[in-house]
Amino acid sequence: MLDKAPAAQITNWLKSFAAALDKGDIDAAMDLFQDECYWRDLLTFTWNIKTMEGKTAIAAMLRATLGSAKPSGWSLTEEVSVNGDKVEGWFTFETAVAHGLGVVRLVDGRCHTLFTSMTDLAGFEERKGATRPLGVVHKADPDRETWSEARAREERDLGSTVQPYCLIIGGGQGGMALGARLKRLGVPTIIVEKNPKAGDSWRNRYRTLVLHDPVWYDHMPYMPFPEHWPVFTPKDQMGDWLEMYAKVMELNYWTSTTCTGASWDADKKAWTVELDRDGEKVVLQPKQLVFATGAYGPPRWIDLPGKDQFKGEIIHSSQYTAGDDFQGKKVAVIGAASSGHDVSVDLWESGADVTMIQRAPTTVVKSDTLMEMGFEIYSEAAVARGLTTEKADYLSASIPFATQAPIQKALYDRIRKRDADFYNRLSASGFAIDFGPDETGLMMKAYRTGSGYYIDVGASDLIIDGKVKVKSGVDIETLTPGGVRFTDGDERPFDVIILCTGYESMHETVAEIIDRETADSVGPCWGVGSGVRNDPGPWQGELRNMWKPTAHEALWFHGGNLALSRFYSKFLALQLKARMEGVETPVYQRPS
């Protein structure tokens, strides 16, 4: 019988678990788990990002990986916490090739969720803190090379006389975060960005764009925003920060560069990648290729019957920059998620007559409500409690996707009760609201489809007040020369149609750059296999293809919002570093 004291429970559980694994006694290890149990592993056992659900799946993983992982040194690291019926403890451990950090949650002395993650590769740790570089050789040397000279040599040689080990396509926050991680690990990397300057991917967006997530959630790796930084970052300020970040983090960052083609040589185990670098053709041969074009691929264009007869302008939100050109015009915004709302506000502020065409219900949550109730661990109060962004990241990652739905449903039950008057007024305006097919709200929509939600920072009041009109629940029958006719017979004049219809999966970018066969072999990115619309089953338990081995060797995907890019860039970088150094990386259940 395990001791009832919380710290003793965790310590005894770790001791019993370690003893069972040392003996290779899988059955004894399974006796330490609840019947309903989950183990989420980031690389340490599986060299994958993988969640095992249930004893059978956990036992199968251990039988396949225990011999190579060789775990040891399980040790409780800090004070244990109690949350309801769960006792939670953080621990460190080692494997044959890495250092690890984990979180275990016990119910009645047995494990309900176990989280294990790699923090460093043994022998290839980042040089930081006490091991940081000295920066100077304290002796006279006529052949001394200064920092600026060494940096200029690196920029000159990499990509010409020296091939990068890794090439990252996309220089937004995702590409930069991964590039910074790889730089600290000594992995020669080039990031290619189509825009003229780092940060332009933000600067080029519509004039009024501001991040909807708070500053504590949005830090970049190694370099948090300063304490005076606004809670919600304006897009041009974000662009300037990223431009600075690329320079200070010494990234090898090629601007005005597009990838025109890529092919894999299975014999040489290398890519041949063709680039247009500011009009010059460059061919690189990296060993690893990473697509970091956000969480998505090309813009999604929907079929609009009668579009050939429409006399006005049709653009996608990716082409929209400001509402000044649309002053006084009648504009239809097709789409009612984040971009649809933001574009509608910008148009209204610029003097346009705006109608939002809502094709499906939208999950809406007020920003201040979400800040208070949904970002508890990413806040100034959390920082005051000693909960750093890094620790909050691990805490979030330690919760398996399969257990998040009931947590999110309970949260949105409270949110709907708190803001009932707001939702009543928004519904009365003709705007269709939902909270997902299982009432789990915004976060689950973000994981499942990356669409269908809006954090309200002002657009909802315009809709409630009728300043932005809404046409909801009725399909478009056809475009007419002067506007749109709907299936209910309603016909409205429009000068401009803006498609806020989202983006395709990132694997469609692979189809454009490599080929259709390769894209189809790896399949779509994002989604967890929930079975809801646009997230087909079977259940994955993790985001498809993100930050982990894909069905194609040496082809990777990296992206997501700032928080996901920050956290998972570490684990993708560790996988790439291990491969460069020849560390064995036996992947458990790589996609076929």
Automatic annotation (TrEMBL):
Keywords: Oxidoreductase
GO molecular function, one term: monooxygenase activity
SUPFAM superfamilies reported in the protein's UniProt record: FAD/NAD(P)-binding domain, NTF2-like
Source organism superkingdom: Bacteria
Record-linked InterPro entries: Auxin_biosynth/cation_transpt, FAD/NAD-bd_sf, NTF2-like_dom_sf, SnoaL-like
Domain SnoaL-like: from-to ranges: 16-110
Name this protein carries in UniProt: NAD(P)/FAD-dependent oxidoreductase
Organism: Flavimaribacter sediminis
